[in-house]
Every structure is written in structure tokens, then in C-alpha cells.
Automatic annotation (TrEMBL):
An MF annotation (GO) of this entry: peptidyl-prolyl cis-trans isomerase activity
Organism of this sequence: Falsiroseomonas bella
Any one of the GO BP annotations: protein folding
Taxonomy, superkingdom: Bacteria
Gene3D superfamilies: 3.10.50.40, Trigger factor, C-terminal domain (1.10.3120.10)
Protein name in the entry: Trigger factor ribosome-binding bacterial domain-containing protein
Domain Trigger factor ribosome-binding bacterial: 71-154
Amino acid sequence: MAQTRPEPDPMTPAPPRFLPLTADRLRRRFILVVSRDAVMERREARLQEIGLTAVAREAERSRPALARILDSTMAECIEQAARDAVAAMLRETGLASIGPARIETLSAPPEHDLVLRAEIATLPEISPPDPTGLRLERLVAAPSAAEVEDELHALARRRGAWQPLPPGAGAGAEDRLVCDVAATLLPARNAIPQPGILGARPGAPGRLPDEWTFGDNGAGLVTEVLAIEPAANPPHIRLRVQGTTTQEGQSYVIFHLPGAIPARPESSWVGSVALRPVGAPRGLRGSKLRLESQDSSAEGRLRRKDAALLAAGDGGFTRCYVSETFADAETAFLRMPLLFDHAAGTVDFCCDIGAPRLVEGLDLGEQGPLPLPALSGQAQLLGAGAADPAGLSAHLQGMKAGETREVTLRLPGGMADRALTGREARFVVRARAVLRRVLPPLDDALAQASGFAGLAALRGGIEARLADRATQLQRRQLRQAALHALLAEAGEIPLPEEAVAAETAAIWAGFAAAAAARGEAPDRVAAMALAAQRLRIGLLVAALARRHGLAPDAVALRAAATALGPGAAEAAVQARALEDTVVAFLLSRAQVTDRPASLAELMAAAEG
């Protein structure tokens, strides 16, 4: 017996409708329609939840507070209906949105249906290249006699014994300096060139402190320096801002001249100012302290961070802070303005302003040096492998036993306490002894100490280990070659910026940690390029798997879990196993030729 579709309930609001518009490869656009009745029904349910019956609403309609509740409830229901409509459209179309949809309201209840224009970013659909057209080069490396000897000498260095040098001998770069270190964190250097109130004069307008400037973006406001208090704590000026404006706007005080504060990419800064409101302000909607980076022109804005300012409850000064790490490679300068937001009409407010500070790294507001126990104590510096997070070793060559040396340096990134990055510290280093590694001879005794019968057997063991390492590197190099050839054959694959931003955020911690391990600052542009490459490879792998019906088996899943290590997310294991399966498929179809190479060349290619 044929089944019939039930007739729709005429009392039930119609579900959302959508109409696809013209789309490109990266963005899909739709018109969504939610019936007026559906939104009004949602609103009625919401009002009943908060206890506003129809009778109460009618009786109290004229009350402003109730009117605001009714308006906000309608806005809340329209917003929720819009989100639900987009979610329903995504479910029905099977699309995956990259980030939230961009929604524009074309019409809304209570007069009309809710009509929306929605745009979502999506990853493109691609057609993968034919694997038989791929040409790959497999690097073949056999350990050379020179590479075996290098490994043998490295073994001797590891087996070497540290012995003290005679008095008066200076420490070389490869020696080990046994020493006592006393580390002190120096007071933070305020980058504001003129943080006091030098040059200020009372009057209308009076004069702001040297290098301070006021601006109102053409609003027509005037300033008056009511008082200067150089002996107060903190020293400050009392500034009045007044006038009448035709529209809402913003005025500001900047505590330094353009381009006065240089900054490095990836540097972290803390800005602050002491602020105290005076009297009852008129037309002032709020204030905030801003920290922003600028490019080498000292005019182009790169990134900004705002912090709202709150007045102290006791009428005293509040020190307000804003902090940010500026990752942009173009960062060259910083700017720190104090901003006042005002409404249209009469503006009249007064405040005390003083002691602006801008500090690279951690700002503890300390007045004197602070001990750094984590960087103090007995240490062994210089030489490969020495634990030297502060970078002291470069300043200690030539020291002799009994000598004391004082070093002041800026603490680098990559330290355990990242808040100390960029701060200056003083180190007093007292050398106890200078040690030099004495290497054992390359003979049978060295071989026997390493578990081999003699020197010839040791060389054979080293050669076998290098050969095994070359085999592992060759697998990684061929995998990299297959994926890069696939990318090259596929050509340009456009990506939505939302997807690249999300992938960059996902890999940033690992990317930055790898850069720190190399002693480098992480490059966000390079991270974005890597993120885009990963996304393109993922799209090609998925497209090949769909076209050729590929799926990882249990063996591939176990191998992927082992490669990723304990604690890897199931989704990550599935993705790695699918990529392994597709790479194996590519290698079985591609044209592969061998080329002799050194171990160093093979290692570089495997890492690429």
C-alpha cells in the first residue's frame, strides 16, 4: 500500500525557506525566509517565560521600561530565528561553513516576514590530478666513509671526560665553565620618553607636558589645564575637555611623538596610565587605553588592543593597564593613546592624568631590582648542550677560574617564564673552574666500552645504524615528494581567509615552539603559508580518497596512532591514516626515479 505524505498542519508556522544565489568557489550566498508567524510565536513563548502576559503587556504598554523589554525580546527572537534558519539551511544542503555566516536582515517582524541574505565561506570542491602523471625523485643515500668517521668522532666526544684546566687558562667556546650566578631583574624601562609632567603649564588652553598631544578628530572641543601637581603621588595634570559637538566622536591624549617607541615583531608590551575622574562628566560615554603597533612609516596601523578604564571607588587614582603581543612581521613602532568616547551635544569632563608607562615584557611596577632565583645558583655554562636559557655563554668566553664578571642583557624568548621576555637582567658570574673535554683515542678500548669487539666492528655497527636511518629518511622524503608533486600538479587552489586563519591558530603553538627550539622568533607569515599548504593537501587527499574509494584499514589506523603518539585525538588519527593510505596509493601509481644523494641532502629533503 502506497504511503502518502501527511498534510501540513495549517496552525503550524512554515519552516524556513531558502533560495541559492550566485556563488563562487569560496562563498555561497542564500536568501532565507522565516515566516512572521514563526518569529512571533517564538516571541510569545519567550514573553511568557519571563512572566509578561498579554493583559499585563496591554495595561503597561506606555511604560518605557516595558517598551524596552518588548523591543529587546523581539530583537533576541529575530536573532535566534536567523541563526536557526542558517543552521537548517546548512543541514539541508550538507555544506560546512568556515566560521560564522555573514547575515544581513532585509526585512523583519512584526510587519513582515524575516528575510535574510546569508553568506558562508566554504572550502572549494576540487578535481584531483591523475596520479599516473606524477613524477617523483627518490633520494638514495648510502653512508660514506666520511660520515662513518664523523659519527665515530661524535661518539668519542660523548665518551670524553671533563678535566680542569690549569690556573690562568681562559675558557673557550667548547669548554665548560663551572660558576656561581646571581641574577637580578632590573627595574622595567619605561619607553615613554617623557612620563612626567615637565613643561606643563596651567591655563586655557594652558600647555600639556612635553611630547604630550591632544586631539579630537575635528569635533571642535577645547582643553584647559586646570592644575599641575608635580609633587603629588603620582605627579599629574588636571585636564578639562569641553565644547559642543554635532555627532558622537572621540578625543585623545597621546603621551609621545610619532615613531618615538621602536618595537620588534613578537615583542610583548604592557601600557598603563594613572587616571582619576574629577566631578560629574557631561557627554562622556567612556574611556579606554589603547596599545597599537605601527609599520616602519610610524603611520600605518597593524594591530590594536583596547582596555576600558574604570574609576576607583574611593575617588583615588586607578592605574589602568593594557597589554598585547605584536606578532606582525612589519611591526616597527608602538603608539599608546588615552581615548575618550563622547556623545553628540554638550561635552564637559575633567580628569587627572599622570605617570604613563610603556614597558616591554612584564611590568611589576617595581622600584628596585628583584632577585631571579630561577636563573641564579651554581651553573655549568659554555660548550654544546649547556643549560643557558638567558644566553649568558656568549659573554663568558675567556673567563678564568676565580674571576668575576658582570653581564647585563635583555632576556630572550623561550624562557620558562615567558613574562620575563624582553626585560633586562643583571648577572654576576663568579668562575669556580674551567673544564675541557679530553677525548679518548679511537681504538679497540673505545669500541669495547660501546659494546663492540673491536674498532672494525664499531665502524660496521655505525654504518648499519646510518643505513637504517637513511631508509627511514627515504620514506619521509618520498612522502614529502609525493605530496609536493600533488600540490604542483593540482595548480592554484584558492582558500577562504577564514579557513587559513583558523588553521593558523590551530598550528600556532607547535609552530612557535619549534621556532623557539631553533632560537628563532616565530614568523606568522610563514605559519599562514604552512597552514594554507596543509589545507590544500587535506583537500587533495580527501578528493583522491572519494574518487578512488580509498579508506584506511586497521593497520593504517594503528600506524597513524603510533606515529602521532599517545593522547592523539581520534580525528587526527583518522586524518593521518587517510593521508598515509592516499600517499601509498600515489606511490603505487606515480613514476619514481632514483638519484644518489648524501645523508645531509636526504635529511634536508625529508624535513621539507
